[in-house]
């Protein structure tokens, strides 16, 4: 197929002086070259693949109406070309009569080449018209450009979109087959519904593209060249993105099928650890209520029955190969199980905080006792008295943490005063603070303390 393009510019000029022989010969030569170029362009348009497809297609919409206009334009083009050819041949015949044309011959020849000497019969419902050769070429250029623009646009859409739609449809069939293998079907899983929607969309899209390609053509802004623009692939692109989303979801379901047993085992372990931690927290709460006085201990809830029910449901889905349902359930369960374990640990920490405070106070009391012993002050009566008072409070049940902390602080202050005197630093002050002094009931590290002491009656507390 020859290359299509605009006709060459008209070679005629406005009416003016009569041509001489050389000017007439040059004008005829240009017209002959122009005639050949026009013929080549028209033949290329006639053989254009897009035109042949348009002739044989069942068109609808915009394309149907524009093709009707374009068909008439192509017919008019050939009519104008025939008239142009006839006029050129008559001019060549006139010039060929004599080697040296007379003035009358040159005047006649000038009129034929520059005057409105070309008669065109009625075309497309129009009456017959007369043109100069220049006007006739301009008219053909206009009709050719609009016809070629329409044909090239339709051909570009047909060349681009149907093949891409077919490839996407093939991928859709593979994805749908894979989806069915893991239970992803319309009405049972959102991805199955999406696949059905995409299938319908591609079917409709292909029919519309084939029957009305110009509805899917976006002309280039500001371009006057025939065929300037690009196919409109927005609907196709949306369908492709939707299919990719479904494909990723199905791959996730396949991953679930592959590692579901391991994930269920991990879930059972996490939920079991949460249950054991809550059991420990409830036991610790009873111990705290028995051993610590004047303390608010938060309540501890029982194991989550909902989590256990959902875990059983997940196991049932796996046994029945309902992977599309198992996938989102496992993801939600993994999040909720970790949250449950964190909640259980926080409950244990909250209820054992008073025991941790008591253990910290016991440790602080014994640490200062060891310090005064190294300084030789272990037999000081007042120190012994304050130590015994603090120890009785800390190793009795129930223990009042606020009162016990005050007793420990009094022992600390006295120990600091006496240590200062021994070391030659002068008498200390009753209000001096020591490391760790002034911590409230929550000031010590959290955790269970060591209950290895006995009260004055020998009872373990």
Tell me what the structure shows.
This protein is mainly alpha-helical. It is built from 11 helices and 6 strands. The chain is elongated. 32% of the residues are buried.
List the helices and strands and how they pair.
Layout: H1 21-47, H2 49-56, H3 61-95, H4 103-114, E1 118-120, E2 129-131, H5 133-181, H6 190-211, E3 217-219, E4 229-231, H7 234-291, E5 292-293, H8 305-319, H9 323-374, H10 381-394, E6 399-400, H11 401-422
Parallel strand pairs: 5-6
Antiparallel strand pairs: 1-2, 3-4
Report the β-strand fraction as a percent range.
under 5%
Average per-residue pLDDT, rounded, comes to 80
**Radius of gyration from the alpha-carbon trace, in angstroms:** 50 Å
Class inferred from helices and paired strands: mainly alpha
**How helix-rich are the residues, as a percent range?**
55-70%
Strand order of the largest sheet: 1-2
Spatial shape: elongated
Count of helical segments? 11
* Poorly predicted regions: 1-5, 7-14, 426-461
Terminal residue distance: 105 Å
Largest sheet: 2 strands, antiparallel
SSE string, helix = H, strand = E? Answer: HHHHEEHHEEHEHHHEH
Q: How many strand elements?
A: 6
